């Protein structure tokens, strides 16, 4: 006899789970649909975000500049040490040859002194540690051996120093690569946001930037502030000659600049060598914390971490390379958080 069983019904719990999941999916879809329009930023919001990213890129740029400067310094130091080691090795070889000549002369006059013979086949450090051995040597031989010993120790120290600096150089190169990626990432993020604008909005922002560059590049009223010195005046004049040239991270001129690249370039034209980065430039000369005491050509620093620097232009203005997308120009110091000035 056939069995007539009723179909098994889904459990109430399973129905509830499916219903809840379906409801959640509907809510999420609705939220996503509603969120899409709100993600569209206005032109002003885009500019604000881009300006912030440019500021972060400049922070990373100064770190990049510092790593690059350290790399170049290490490369010079390593090259100098390696040259010294090469010359030292030549000197050591000459000293050994001299001792060999002495041994040859002894052989011709009746045989090599056992102590010299021992030296020629062993380490002089161990050899000289034995006072009894010194008694068997002539003063000329002792002097030659001591010179060899001193030169060997000197070379060992220099080779050790070179090894440490080579390791430091490798680490610095890695750091340099990371800083460069950081800068590029910030700039790429800014460009991505700019790409979200319509063609008209992009044109409006570009026109706004061009107007800012043109108006800020015009000669400003410097007020009554005198130059800090003759060289400061020369540095300021050199910076004025760069007005209108673009900001490019890592650039030191003469076709483009970043902020510290401009200031170091300007002072170099005045015959004054100052460090490459804003952080290092902040630690030279005399600090001036009152804006009213600044003079034309003084270095002026902005933001808490001192990642931006320019030249005081008088009248509450700074002459600087602002950020990516802008050119060397004058700007009101009140537009940025002033920290202090430095008189070079």
Task: Name the descriptors.
61% helix, 344 residues, disordered N terminus, alpha+beta, six-stranded antiparallel sheet, 10 helices
Describe this structure in words.
The chain has 344 residues and is an alpha+beta fold. 61% of the residues lie in helices and 8% in strands. The chain contains 10 helices and 6 strands; from the N terminus they run ααααααααααββββββ. Strands 1-6-2-3-4-5 form a 6-stranded antiparallel beta sheet. β3 and β4 form a beta hairpin. The longest helix is centred in the first third of the chain and has 66 residues. It is elongated. It starts with 11 loop residues before the first helix and ends with a strand. The N terminus is likely disordered.
Number of strands: 6
Mean pLDDT: 80
Distance between the termini: 110 Å
Major sheet: arrangement of strands = 1-6-2-3-4-5
Oligomer: single chain
- The number of helical runs is 10
Q: How much of the polypeptide forms β-strand, as a percent range?
A: 5-15%
Category by helix and strand content? alpha+beta
Helix-strand pattern: HHHHHHHHHHEEEEEE
Molecular shape: elongated
Low-confidence stretches: 1-38, 130-134
The Rg value, from CA coordinates, equals 36 Å
Largest sheet: 6 strands, antiparallel
Please bin the fraction of helical residues: 55-70%
């Amino acid at each position: 006899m056939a069995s007539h069983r009723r179909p098994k019904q889904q459990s109430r719990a399973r129905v509830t789970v499916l219903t809840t999941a379906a409801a959640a999916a509907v809510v999420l879809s609705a939220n996503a649909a509603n969120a899409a329009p709100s993600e569209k930023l206005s032109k002003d919001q885009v500019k604000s975000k881009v300006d912030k990213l440019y500021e972060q890129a400049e922070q990373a740029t100064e770190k990049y500049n510092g790593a690059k400067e350290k790399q170049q310094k290490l490369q010079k130091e390593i090259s100098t040490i390696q040259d010294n080691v090469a010359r030292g090795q030549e000197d050591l070889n000459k000293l050994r040859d001299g001792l060999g000549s002495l041994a040859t002369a002894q052989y011709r006059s009746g045989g090599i002194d056992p102590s010299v013979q021992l030296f020629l086949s062993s380490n002089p450090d161990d050899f000289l540690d034995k006072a009894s051995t010194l008694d068997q040597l002539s003063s000329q031989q002792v002097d030659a051996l001591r010179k060899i010993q001193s030169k060997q120790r000197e070379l060992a120290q220099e080779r050790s120093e070179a090894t440490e600096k080579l390791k430091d150089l490798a680490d610095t190169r890695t750091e340099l690569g990371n800083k460069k990626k950081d800068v590029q990432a910030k700039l790429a993020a800014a460009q991505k946001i700019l790409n979200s604008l319509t063609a008209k909005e992009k044109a409006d922002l570009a026109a706004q930037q061009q107007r800012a560059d043109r108006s800020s590049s015009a000669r400003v009223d410097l007020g009554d502030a005198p130059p800090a010195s003759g060289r400061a005046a020369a540095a300021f004049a050199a910076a004025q000659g760069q007005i209108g040239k673009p900001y490019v991270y890592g650039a030191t001129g003469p076709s483009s600049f970043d902020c510290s690249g401009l200031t170091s370039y300007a002072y170099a034209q005045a015959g004054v060598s100052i460090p490459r980065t804003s952080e290092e430039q902040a630690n030279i000369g005399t600090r001036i914390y009152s804006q009213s005491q600044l003079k034309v050509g003084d270095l002026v620093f902005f933001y808490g971490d001192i990642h931006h620097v320019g030249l005081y232009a008088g009248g509450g203005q700074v002459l600087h390379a602002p950020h990516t997308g802008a050119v060397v120009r004058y700007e009101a110091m009140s537009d940025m958080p002033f920290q202090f000035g430095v008189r070079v």
